[in-house]
Amino acid sequence: DVLSDERASLPLTRWGNPSQTSAILHSLGQRLSLIQGPPGTGKTQTACKLLRCSTLLKAKKPNFLATACSNEATDNILDGLAPMNLKVVRLGRSAHPHLRKFGLRWQARQTDRVKAASDRILKARRAKKAAHKEGLQGLELRPFFEQIIQEWKNWRSCLKAACLYIIKQADGVVSTCSAAGDTMLDDFSFQLVLIDEASQASEPEAMIPLTRGMPEGQLPEPELQEEIFFVNNTAEDEYFIEVVNEMVKPQNKNDVTVAVDAEWFTDDYPL
User: What's the pTM value of the predicted model, to 2 decimals?
Assistant: First the structure.
């Protein structure tokens, strides 16, 4: 089929060791994948490479939503995607200075419209200050305050429009699970949803990004083609796997889980 041909053409020789490559190929052919492995086997790196492969196969933008339950884990995903030449936006502020340029609102504030709106706010505030120095007081300053309020409203409107435009042009969005509920994403559905460190997320927390992969916030039915990927840190949370299986109802539950093994520690694949 077409997907098999596309998968065969991917440059996977530089995308990890054999078990990681196998996990990527397996996940690209499934509606649901749960990638498991002990610490240090490169699960987050595999997840980032999987996201990159997805953008190569599918031109829809935004293509993916990558999430994690903590800000640190979210930044790890973003750090892995940074050198991959992808247009990625981060909801919320990163704690790491070198990642702040990926912030959605940081990027929006660099646009000409938002900068112009900011300048108009400063101009209105200077006008109010000048009027106060000239002796105007109380109700006499009301028109100046109203102008400042109006300029702030215009600024917020420009900022939202800029954010929506940036998301539309992005290859993917990175956020914490809870931040995936931001109303900024209400108009978008993603072809691929990933939850890193999934065993650390509570069920309600994991549901938030899941709904972003479905039209109109509905949980997926078997006939839908959205792909939902989990990167789990342990192989012991069987209850979590049962919850996942029940929520997305994969057609073949035996094909859900794929392991990333310890080959990462061999001499052929040094850390």
Answer: 0.76
For residue 103, give the DSSP letter. B
Percent of the chain beyond pLDDT 70? 72
The phi and psi torsions of 229 (rounded to 5 degrees) equal -115, 135
Least confident of 17-21, 157-161, 195-199: 17-21
Give me the residue label for tokens 């990167």: 231
Cβ density class 164-200: b for 16+ within 10 Å, e for less: bebbeebbbbbbbbbbbbbebbeeebbbbbbbbbbbb
Residue 35 · residue 230 · CB < 8 Å:
yes
DSSP assignment of 34-100, as one string? EEE--TTS-HHHHHHHHHHHHHHH---SS-EEEEESSHHHHHHHHHHHGGGT--EEESS--SSGGGG
> Bridge partners of 117?
none
Q: Does residue 235 carry a pLDDT above 60? A: no
pLDDT for 173 beyond 80: yes
Residue with tokens 């007081």: 137
- Residue 81's Cβ-side half-sphere holds a number of Cα atoms within 13 Å equal to 31
Instruction: Give the residue-averaged pLDDT of 171-175.
Output: 95
Q: How far is C-alpha 9 from the chain's CA centre?
A: 26
**Phi and psi of 259, rounded to 5°?**
-100, 145
